[in-house]
Write a structure and sequence with these properties.
This protein is an all-alpha fold and 376 residues long. Helices cover 76% and strands 0% of the residues. This is Tetratricopeptide repeat protein.
Length: 376
């Protein structure tokens, strides 16, 4: 008889013992047997199921089922009615709020937890993930800096790796990721970093394998969908890439890079309206991001809207003098003037300055212009 079966028998024999019931629920949840745990809560005596400790585990069941709204409802009820609120309640409530896209609210929830209570590493990891979503990368790294050992070190290293990646320090990102994967080959964030760096190095087969494995284990991983979509796009399977990137945008509607990747995929299909819509989504997230204005410029240029393109190019280069999309837009305007070699030179200079997977050659831009330009 395994431990869960033993606890179940004991709880059935003593149905008014909350310690036994909670131990059983914890055992089932740790084993991933969420439906069984929920069934025990439903079948428990009302005097048991209404206890704060049991309701906390009810919220855990909801979280593990993906029902964040129900989890928030239960946890907020506990926060409103309990005197001494365990830090785990604040942790789970903040996590559910983060999943719902309410990062600022999640951070405020975490701040209500008393120092020294609960698992400090779990609290640090969640706070770092919230700060990451808020684009506060350095602050997130500072939160994780004290963690140098322990059972969850590989998870901390994986999160740090992803933070370094998003800060543009690929060497540190790779080093942290490989340390994490050495200890735990399934570590989510570290695998994302490995797959993304392989993608950027045009090692498409390796990158594809990493993202495929990730999606098998983490089908909710927006960044894995994004990475797989980019792999497919670079491999020339544009229709499949678009479907994957659309899935990524549903998982991560607040991630600007996803909307940009989708926009470029749509451009590759000649779908200017779709690309404009995706750039609009990115613009709604951050009106000061130069590449978004460069995207608008490229769409205008491809439509033959020279005045609007020039205005968008000015805004884009003011916000990001090294931005690529504005330069692509400039190349289209040069083509309109018949300056083919000058247009090719603009694109070649982009590729020479920032080589990698994100670059598109001049011939593609030339073909795209012919594809989408209204015939007259």
């Amino acid at each position: 008889m395994n431990r869960a079966s033993q606890l179940s028998a004991l709880a059935d024999h003593d149905p008014e013992n909350p310690i036994l019931l909670c131990d059983l629920l914890d055992e089932l949840l740790s084993a991933g047997r969420v439906d069984e745990a929920a069934k025990h809560i439903v079948e428990a005596l009302p005097s048991m199921s209404e206890l704060p400790a049991v309701r906390f585990r009810e919220a855990r069941c909801a979280l593990l089922r993906g029902d964040t709204k129900r989890a928030i409802q239960v946890l907020q009820s506990l926060v409103s009615n309990m005197k001494d609120i365990p830090s785990g309640v604040f942790h789970d409530l903040a996590y559910a709020q983060l999943v719902e896209g309410r990062a600022e609210e999640a951070l405020k929830t975490l701040e209500r937890a008393k120092d020294g209570q609960g698992d400090p590493v779990a609290m640090a990891l969640l706070k770092a993930r919230i700060l990451h979503q808020q684009q506060q990368m350095q602050a997130a790294l500072e939160v994780l800096a004290p963690v140098q050992s322990g059972a969850r070190l590989s998870e901390v290293q994986g999160v740090r790796a992803l933070l370094w990646l998003d800060l543009g320090d690929n060497a540190r990102a790779a080093a942290e990721a490989e340390q994490a994967l050495k200890a735990n080959p399934d570590q989510h964030e570290a695998a994302l970093v490995r797959g993304t760096l392989a993608l950027w190095s045009m090692q498409l087969q390796e990158s594809s394998e990493v993202f495929e494995c990730l999606l098998e284990r983490h089908p909710e991983s927006g960044r894995a969908w994004l990475g797989m979509g980019q792999v497919r796009m670079l491999g020339g399977d544009i229709a499949d890439a678009r479907a994957l990137l659309e899935r990524a945008s549903l998982q991560m509607p607040g991630h600007i890079g996803t909307w940009h990747a989708l926009a470029w995929c749509q451009l590759m299909q000649g779908d200017l309206a779709g690309a404009k819509h995706s750039f609009d989504k990115a613009f709604a997230l951050d009106r000061t991001f130069g590449e978004t204005h460069g995207g608008f410029a490229l769409v205008h240029a491809l439509r033959g809207e020279r005045k609007e393109a020039e205005e968008s190019i000015k805004r884009a280069t003011r916000l990001d003098p090294q931005g690529r999309s504005a330069r692509y837009a400039q190349s289209v305007l040069l083509l309109d003037e018949g300056q083919v070699e000058e247009a090719r030179g603009v694109i070649d200079s982009i590729i020479a300055r920032t080589p990698g997977a994100a670059m598109v050659p001049a011939d593609f831009i030339f073909r795209l212009r012919e594809l989408v330009r209204p015939k007259g």
